[in-house]
Amino acid sequence: AAGVIQSPRHLIKEKRETATLKCYPIPRHDTVYWYQQGPGQDPQFLISFYEKMQSDKGSIPDRFSAQQFSDYHSELNMSSLELGDSALYFCASSLTLQETQYFGPGTRLLVL
Amino acid sequence: DQQVKQNSPSLSVQEGRISILNCDYTNSMFDYFLWYKKYPAEGPTFLISISSIKDKNEDGRFTVFLNKSAKHLSLHIVPSQPGDSAVYFCAAMGRNQGAQKLVFGQGTRLTINP
């Protein structure tokens, strides 16, 4: 069965640069979630989108923005990167709101 | 403030025996609970869930028990297999509150010994 696709899988950036992470949900899933997992930590919710509109917001820095497109894929844009942004970024999707979330493989971001 | 807690960072179990992973939560608004399994360099894989209207849900070798009064849930894996070795995350959601985010515990690393 098709799963959540994330690209790139690995990304290395320098401080103050920008990064764009992409997420392609499971077909027919209309809700996308972004989570950040720092080293040795549990995943923390950043933001979610339902039917192309932001539906919930967590601990997402103002330097980050995200959107969901007409094909339901989502992009997380990160600007003015800081060393502390180094983490695993997971995208999850679900078939409508509040259903079980299925996670992608993650993007490992390293900020030098 | 850790709303979902997995107090055992690691657990070692003999192959064929039962593995019991525990999870406690503090927010009484949580009404939907999930267990995810995570291998290194992969995303969390959904295992099993339970709604707060139930006290047990079973799927093959995996059973989740929910004790609402104690705000405690547990995942039982029986019989345990070497492929079960992974980090297990407990997660919770307040669906009746319109929440969409999952709140995760810190994870428990399960090692199944041959």
Strand-helix topology:
The complex is a heterodimer of chains A (112) and B (114).
Chain A: E1 5-7, E2 10-13, E3 19-24, E4 31-37, E5 44-50, E6 53-57, E7 64-68, E8 74-78, E9 87-94, E10 102-103, E11 107-111
Parallel strand pairs in A: 2-11
Antiparallel strand pairs in A: 1-3, 3-8, 4-5, 4-9, 5-6, 7-8, 9-10, 9-11
Chain B: E1 4-5, E2 10-14, E3 19-25, E4 32-38, E5 45-51, E6 56-59, E7 62-67, E8 72-77, E9 86-93, E10 103-104, E11 108-113
Parallel strand pairs in B: 2-11
Antiparallel strand pairs in B: 1-3, 3-8, 4-5, 4-9, 6-7, 7-8, 9-10, 9-11
Provide the β-strand percentage band of chain A.
over 45%
Task: Write down the overall geometry of chain A.
Answer: globular
Cα distance spanning the termini of chain A: 37 Å
| Percent of residues in beta strands of chain B | over 45%
Low-confidence stretches of chain B: none
Q: Structural class of the secondary structure composition of chain B?
A: mainly beta
Seen as an oligomer or otherwise, the chain set is heterodimer
Which class best fits the helix and strand makeup of chain A?
mainly beta
Number of helices of chain B: 0
Q: Give the C-alpha Rg of chain B.
A: 13 Å
Give the biggest beta sheet of chain A: 7 strands, mixed
- Give the H and E element order of chain A: EEEEEEEEEEE
Q: Any idea what the shape of chain B is?
A: globular
Question: How helix-rich are the residues of chain B, as a percent range?
Answer: under 10%
> How many DSSP H or I helices of chain A?
0
